[in-house]
Design a protein that fits this description.
With 99 residues, the chain is of the alpha+beta class. It has two helices and seven strands. Strand 3 and strand 4 form a beta hairpin. It is globular.
């Protein structure tokens, strides 16, 4: 069953600039293994010791897989999987002037 994987811009260097790739897999874990096989180097960006990296979010049809069955979440033909790296930033300093 083919799943559309939406690849963020920072990982497109591994997919030859492709924003979307089609992968056939039964679950998330298998999909990520297949993704690494098809696009070498992308796997370590997403996984560490076989687990999803802390700052990588994966959404299946707009649902965070952490609230589904995680890496064992089943996939169906036509599903859409989005890989989203978490963004972090500094604190916004408001005011700060002296009198």
């Amino acid at each position: 069953m083919a799943v559309e994987v939406r690849v963020p811009s920072m990982l497109q260097k591994f997919t030859d600039g492709e924003k979307r790739v089609q992968i056939e897999s039964a679950n998330i874990a298998e999909l990520l293994t297949t993704l690494e096989t098809s696009y070498p180097g992308i796997g370590p960006q997403l996984l560490e010791d076989g687990e999803l990296r802390r700052f990588v979010n994966i959404y299946l049809n707009d649902e965070d897989i952490r609230f589904l069955d995680g890496m064992e979440t089943s996939l169906s033909d036509g599903d859409v999987l989005a890989i989203l790296p978490a963004l972090a930033g500094g604190a916004l300093r408001v005011g700060g002037g002296s009198s």
